[in-house]
Each structure stands twice: as structure tokens, then as C-alpha cells.
Amino acid sequence: MESHNTPAQTSSSSPPNTGDTDGWPLPASILAGSIIVSFFQPIFLAVSLVALIWLGVLHRAYSRRLVGLGARYRHSHDEIRHAQHLAARIGSILDSADVPILATNNDGSIIQANFAAKSILGSGRPLIGEHFDSLITQSAVHELERLARSGESGHARLQLPVGSDMRIFDVAADPIASSRGSVCTFTDITELSRSEALKADFAANASHELRTPIASIIGAVQTLEGPAKDDPAMIQRLIQMISSNASRLDLIVKDLLDLSKLESTLVPVVLSRIDLAELVEQNSLPFFSVCQRRGLTIETRIDSDCSVITSDESMLELILRNLIGNATKFAHENTTITIHAEPITLGIDPASPPPDGLAGALGVRIGVRDKGIGIPFSQQQRIFERFYQVDEARDGSSARRGTGLGLAIVKHAARTLGGNIRLKSIHQQGTTMIVELPGCLSGMGDTADSTP
User: Fold this and answer.
1) Which residues 6+ apart lie within 8 Å of 45 measured at CB?
2) Model confidence over 318-346: pLDDT tens digits?
3) Which end of the chain has the lower number of beta carbons within 10 A, N or C?
């Protein structure tokens, strides 16, 4: 990346070497003198002729050398233009990369920076000429770049604020073979790091959630085998405890299996025509006893334009079952839970497109509204995390405590169908969970209102 003089640059900056062509003054002088003397002695005309021939030979040799120099100059000029075109192409390729790339010379000064490096690392300013250590403040990255200049490649992890977010980069530094410089690439691994953290949290949370009912069952069994074996009342209580914890274990395992299936790209989406009102009624029936005990009423409002939709029935069942289940747990007693559906116009999310067979702008919006305590604003973004529960904010007694996987399942199911989930929640007034699914009403005409 450092500049070097090319042969063409050398030849263009110095006068051409003409060899022996500087000998032309002698025959020219003889020619001029002999012409003058020939006025008095005609014999000198022969000398003039010889001198003229001599000049002609020198002129021809000089012309040949000029032609050769011109060819060399044009060749060198073409090489320079080719090198400039190649450098421009390489610069364009580097600027097209969304990974910041920096190159330094032998003293650590930046000699090349692509567009991503300028925008992400330099906040849009030119970086050429700055010292690497003044741009990056972490000493580990300084050492990495210094070792690369001495011929040793390496990697380091770097945290940098980018906009309003803290991003994590994997920095790779490699030596430049043609000089004692280095090239450093900054790969954004923020999402990968967060994914690793989520997996670690998931393993810890899952083991905790499983350990609690298992420990209760083991304790109850040990008590049955020991002090309580002759106490009928205690035996009955312990049997109920074992049954309750076994049911909780079964529920956790079922939810984990559902979540695992949804996260697997190998599970096919099976589309069919679905009577939405009938599906809502079927998934409300399992909560009849809870509603009767707590004085809850489930009211269904399905717009006639979306009474029949095209979607995956098993995915919709997961969505409805979990949303209705949450509403029955956290609604105030003697209130109404409203399940409504309406047609809407939805754009397609390129990151999560709908499955093949679902096309068009018309989709469906399904909402489940309860009149409960609501979810604190500070925790609304976290409720879709696996095992996250807002027990203290939503009156989470042990009787109402779920697995903490329901909304994560709903989120994955909605994304699998190309949709999304969001919520509206007001303290002491209730929560509305809203699922929007695109392409469910293809061919029905674009007459739906797209206003949320």
C-alpha cells in the first residue's frame, strides 16, 4: 500500500537519454564551414555533401531512439493507468464490504480505511494519516496491531459504542507481506455473543425450573417413606404435592418441545383453510373451569372478512392457547377477556418472510385483551425472553405461575408464519397482546384498514 516509483515515473521526470546524439554539432559546423569556403574553393562542396550525409545518419539514429523512448513512455503510461484502475477497483471492493478494514504502515499510521471503518470507527471522518493507537483505545488491540507489524497474526475482542448501542467486534490483525505494516478487520459479533449468552441463560434457567419440582417430588417421596407413612392426612397432602409438581414438569417439557420445534428450520409449515372463530372456541374450552372459578367471561369478536384464513393450524393453536392462558391467569376476577380478529394490510419483513403459499398484502390481526394489573413499561421488552416472568408485577401467585416459555413460543410461532407480536399494557387497566400475520387473506381484495 506504500507508494513506489515506477519506471515510467522515472523516465517522465528526467530528460531522455539520447546516447551519442550530442555529436551533431561537429558535422553541422563542418557543413556550414564547407558551404562558405565552397564559394572560393568549389572542391569543398564534396566536403559539404559528406557532412550532410553524416548529419542525415545522426538524425536517423536520433529519430529511432525517440521512437523507442516514445514506445517506452506509452507502455509505462499504460502500466500506470492499469495500476490506478486496479487500485480504484480494490478501493471500491473494500468500500463495498460492511466490515471495517484498516491498514497501517511500519510506524502504525493508517494508510487505508474503507467506508465502513470511516463510518463505524471514525464517525464519518477521514482516517488516513491518524495513528492506530489514537483511534482504538484498548491496549489489547494496540498490542495485536503491533505484533501484526512484526509478522505475527492474531485476534482480540473489542467493545465499542456505535450510535446508542454497545457493539462487540472480533478484531483480526495480519501482517502485510510487501511491507512492515498490518491490516486489521473488525467483524461485528454482537448478535452471536448475545446468542451465546441467551443459550447460557437458557441452560441455567431450564435447569433451575426443572430442579425445583424435582426437589419437591424427591422431598415428598422421602417424607412418605419416613415420618408420614402412617399419617393419612399427610400422605394425601404429599400425593397432591407430587401430582402438582409432576404436572408442572410435564408442562415445562411440553413447552420446551414446542419451542425446540419452532426454533428448528426443519419443521415444515402446513397450510390449510381455517375457521378462525371455531379455532378460538376450541382453544378457549380448556380454560372453562378457570374462568368459571374466577368469574371470567371470554368474548369473541371475529370480523366476517377474516372468519376463514389460510395458515398453519398447529402454529395458531400454540399462539391462541398461550395468549388465552395468560389472560385467564392475570385478568382481574369478574372481568371480560376479549379475543378479536380483523383484516389488515401488512408489509413483508425480509428477515422473516411468510412461508411459501402465503402471498399478498392482506393479513390478519389477532388480539387478546385482559383487564388485569398490566405489565410495567420497564419490563415489557423482556417478557418474550425464555423463562422470564413478571410475577411480582402481575400478582404471580404460585397458582398462576407458568413456565415462562409461553410468550417465547408465541413469538417464534408468529415469526415462523412471517408475522410479529407486540403488546399494549397500561398499569391497573390491563394488557392487549397483538399478533399480526401477513398473507392470510390473499385474494380477498385490498380493502382492509392498516391502521394499528
Assistant:
1) 34, 38
2) 899 999 998 998 899 999 999 999 999 88
3) C
